[in-house]
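Section: Multi-chain targets

For targets with more than one molecule, the full set of components is provided together so that the structure can be written out for the assembly as a whole rather than chain by chain. Components appear in the order listed by the source. The example entry contains two components.
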Amino acid sequence: MGIAAAATMLFGVTACSTGTGTSGEEAAPAESITIDYLHRLPDGEGMTKVADIIAEWNTAHPGVQVTATKFDGKAAEMLTKLKADVKAGSVSCLAQLGYAEVPTMYTEGMLENVTDVAKDYVGNFSAGAVALMTVNGETVGLPQDTGPLVYYYNAAEFERLGLTVPTTADELAAATTAAAAAGKYAVAFQPDEAQYWLSGQTAAAGAAWFQAKDGKWSVDVSDAGTAKVASFWQGLIDSKSTLVANRWGDEFKQALVDQTLIGTIGAAWEAPLLAGDMAGSANEGQWAVVELPTFGATQMTGPDGGSGVAVMKGCAHPAEAMEFNNWFNTQIDPLVSQGLVVAAKGAMTTPDAIKSFYGGQDVFSVLAAANESLSPDFIYIPGFPAINGDMVKAADAAGQGTAPVSDIFAAAEKSAIAALESAGLPVAK
Amino acid sequence: MSTLTRPVAPERLASEQRAEANRRRRWREGRIGWGFFAPFAILFALTFVVPILVSIRSSFFTEKAAGDSLYGGGGLVETFAFLDNYAQVLGNAIFWEGMGRVLLFGAVQIPVMLGGALILALLLDSFIVRRVAFFRLAYFLPYAIPGVIAALVWTYIFSPGFSPINQALVALSDALAALLGSPVDLTIDFFAPGTIIASMATMTTWTFMGYNMLIFLAALQAIPHDLYEAARLDGASEFAIVRRIKVPMVGQATLLAVLLSIIGTVQLFNEPTVLAAVNPWMGNDYTPMMLAYSSMMGTTSPSGAGPASAVSISMALIAGILAAIFALVQKRSTR
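Its structure, encoded as tokens over all components, is:
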């Protein structure tokens, strides 16, 4: 109860409500309902616009009209808005949530249990992604896109330097060291992305930080996989073989453009972003993507982002909302045009612009393969977003060489326990 | 028409009627006054009073997961925590580190900024400067630029790879090196932990100096000019007029400017937030205001409206105490 509630009472703002189709004079035939959908898709230049996709649905479904709203702020701000809206009873029926945010929202009672309705649709999506939209045995929505980690590299530069494309972490370290001898970097350590980027790498190495033990959360980062990731980066930072640059800083982009950075571990959704960063430079047509070099025994990768569309608590028409949810999230080509690696089953066609940047490679087939090899063991705890600050701070210190890389994971563990305790959830000591 | 009726009655009646009419008019006028006041009062209550009350209330509550299963019970229960949130804030080293930073920041930045603002105001007020309107607007302009945009521009100016200042310093270093025959490096790392507070101070000084200058200028222009004339007749120099008349007479304005600056400093948010985006070591709790925001957004623990409100209200209290101390000291010293 707060300002949003007061505003609702004053102005009678209601979303997700039933309204008789009285708009205009073309007397709408029957009862028509409205579903609101809050998303943060990029909706950029050259993409199939969300509005256009939804217009198609609205034409075909006069009884279930969908209005989509783009949220332009940060992810954390959208969660705060959704929470206020749920309390005020004015929340959108459907909202895009990052997979790591789903448990938090579930614990706070912000999500609708739509397990029964979802049964008919879950078969259309990759099982691992469906699992991320399922908390405590309850399905709360449908997955939209995934963010498996992959390895992007400048194939032309690799050839020029005589480097082989790495398939294991050790080979990647060797290639990076060799590249450094030639004044190039084959990876970048990215402090600002530490939370998802590094936890994804440990997942690829087989780590599962959060596990249920006797009805309590057990938080443990002292496994072999996490140690492997820590020593990998420690070695490269100590020998100054890796570029240390924030993913969203100017330095990173500049290093890409002037070809000092010729390789990077990144999420699948970075494929179009990297192409955009280097648009118009000598890099065009030179890059390529492969599955993440293995950090563990088998070909496995970890999640770095990705999101689903959840049904929010208080949605008046969950069944219709889920019907639309299924339809929207299986619009593979339009969603791929938005830069997403979709969670829906089916072939993704690499858009021409991306194909030409990556030297004609069928990029999305590699990304889809990475999707298949996502670690099934790494799950998120309620409150995972709260560990970001501490991890990033520790990652920056590690990047500067003033603290060991292992401190990042120690910070994650400490911070995760604090987050669980702050939420009032049971933690095993 | 009897002469027996007391003659005072009609008069009293008339005066009573007049009083009644007066009352009625006052009431009617009062009603009109309230009518004009109402839009402000309603908006003020909605956007100012209600949020403060909601925030005070929520600072005494915490939200915990309902049920004690792994994911709680699919909801939160609000429990009365009394002073728990405050105890957590006041026992939180990060809060005090942040408060220490902003106070250190304020102790240096406020005198520099207000000193500069006073000098600018004195210059504009003196007859040395023509085109006062132009300069007044020019100095005030930085304040009109949204804080976040100003912070972004300054981030660019300070950023290690792009800084135009450093590019100039590199050229200067090279010239000096050629002259001295030994390597010279005059470049500044504006984002180093030791210098970032100075960089932020530069940003806020740039933004707010013109704003404070206006406060001083308004106070200077309210000083009756016959005082200057009298002083000049007594043989006072322009500098003496500034020192003996102008500066003492803007005392009240100084008090206002310092109070506003103290409050603004405690709430320091835009500049560090934008800088933290490119300097992750700052974290999302570098200043108390950032801590409050991160708590509310759930990106730091403890998170939620309760802890966030407790941080905000603690900040307000500290700012209030500092402002009160300053006002008292100022009164003492001018007495």
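The CA atoms of residues 83 and 386 of chain A lie 16 Å apart.
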